[in-house]
Amino acid sequence: MKEQNTYVEYSRSEIDTQPDKTEWSRFDALTDEDIDAATVSDADDPKTDAAFWKDATVIMPENIVAIDLDLLEWFKAQAPDYETQINTVLREYVKANAGS
Asked: Contact at 8 Å (CB) between 19 and 87?
């Protein structure tokens, strides 16, 4: 039976209260050779070559909306989960402008 994925959403403040489980000493002990060996065997990141990219097309995003830093500071002043609030606003903006 295939394992079912579970989607869980956390606020920034919830994430910040979680203990850091990173094994920093293990990370710090890695050499460049260790890292190179790990990347070669990473099934989630298959290596590519020029032939793989020969038919690729670069597509630049359109309709990029610049966010004024004053607006970002305003969101930050509203609540600690300001990133979630910004994402909510952007989702509603996209929904309202779909098909325009």
From this structure: no
pTM: 0.33
- Closest by Cα among 94, 64, 91, 88 to 75: 88
Residue 82: CB partners within 8 Å, gap ≥ 6?
12, 75, 76
Question: Could you give phi then psi for residue 81, rounded to 5 degrees?
Answer: -95, 40
pLDDT in tens, 68-85: 778 888 888 988 898 999
Q: What is the DSSP annotation of 50-84?
A: HHHHTT-------SPPPPPHHHHHHHHHH-TTHHH
**Rounded Cα–Cα distance for residues 40 and 19 (Å):** 31
